[in-house]
Every structure is written in C-alpha cells, then in structure tokens.
Amino acid sequence: MKLYAKQIKFRTMANDGLKILLVDDDKIMLFLHDTFLKRSGVLCDTVLCYNGKEALDYLDTNHALETTFLILLDINMPVMNGWEFLRAIRDKPYLPKVLIVMVSSATEESEKARALTFMQVIDYQQKPLTVESCRRIIGSEKLSGFFGNTIGE
Predict the structure, then answer these.
(1) In degrees rounded to 5, what are phi and psi of residue 128?
(2) What is the DSSP letter of 117?
(3) In the beta sheet, which residues pair with residue 69?
C-alpha cells in the first residue's frame, strides 16, 4: 500500500534535517493534527501514515543519516499498532535519529508510564492534539535545535 505523503514547506532552523511522521488510522485525526501543527508554527515536511507498518516502511526506505524523525504515534491501529512499532524499531540503525510522541485517547496512567519506558518516546499526549499541545511538543528540550522563534507567530 502506498503512503499518503504530503510535503509541506515550513520554517524550521534545519528544514532538511527534520521530518514529521503523523501515524494514525483515523484520517480525521491526521488532518486535525497536521492542521494544529501548522497553526502552532511547525513548518517542516510532514508525512502521513495510516499504521505502524506504513511508518516503518517509510523509515526503512527514507532514513538519510542527516534526517531526524519526529513521530506522532497513535497506539491503537490495525496492521501494526504503536507498541508493535516501538518494538520493531529497537534494532534499526536510524533509532538514534527517531523521537516519538505517543498520541492516544487512552487516559490510563499505566499507558503513559509504559510509553515512557521506551527511550525514543519523549512525550505522551491525549487525543486530539490542540495548538497548545503542539506548542508544548515543539517546545521540548529534545527538539530545541529544530524550531526557531516561530511559536506564537
């Protein structure tokens, strides 16, 4: 199955150095999250994937050494869910260049605690994202080198 990939040119400090993958089986959530990222000032390439397998296939074929991937990853999806995706990338050569924000409708603290045991997971957010939650994500210390003063513009 071919990825639905949408290239959007945004303003980041290292435009060619960061790609954002939105991974969710819900097309409406993908649209909302993409829109809220734009409204929060995120201006870089965005790739939309409908499950973990599509995201894994994309990473396996597009992992240029100079590219860092920020993945906003849903947990409950068909084909390959978020947990399966996290296990599948453990031994990949590009793992150090992957930063993951889990995005889920699950409200249990145990889900958040489980997600944060994976070293690549930098945050856990409730669905749906908002402009404010997107601003918190891009304000993360781990992403500070990628975003200029675009927040709040």
Answers:
(1) -80, 155
(2) T
(3) 19, 98
Q: Which three-class secondary structure string do you get for 9-50?
A: CCCCCCHHHEEEEEECCCHHHHHHHHHHHHHCCCCCEEEEEC
pTM: 0.84
Asked if 137 and 123 touch (Cβ cutoff 8 Å), the reply is yes
DSSP conformation class of 151: T
CA-CA distance, 54 to 76, in Å (whole number)? 14
Task: Provide the pLDDT for residue 41.
Answer: 83
Residue 119: Cβ within 10 Å count:
12
pLDDT at 7: 35
DSSP 141: G
Averaged pLDDT, groups of 10, the chain, 153 residues long? 35 60 95 91 86 96 86 96 96 94 90 94 93 89 70 40
Nearest partner of 87 among 123, 124, 114, 58, judged by Cα: 114
> Rounded to whole angstroms, what are the CA distances from 110 to 22, 107, 114, 115, 121?
23, 9, 6, 9, 15
Residue whose token pair is 């240029």: 64
